[in-house]
Amino acid sequence: MKLKNGGRLMNIKIGKVEQYIHEKLEKEKLHFVLLDPDDVSPEIASKIARISEEVGVDGIMIGGSTGAEGEVLDNVVKAIKESSNLPVILFPGSQRGISKYADAIFFMSLLNSRNPFFITGAQALGAFQVKKYNIEPIPMAYLIVEPGETVGWVGDAKPIPRHKPKIAAAYALAGQYLGMRLVYLEAGSGAPKHVPADMIRIVKSVIDVPLIVGGGIRTYEDAKKVAQSGADIIVTGTAIESCSPEDAKTRLINLIKGTKKH
Ligand code: 1GP
Question: What's the pTM?
Answer without folding.
Answer: 0.95
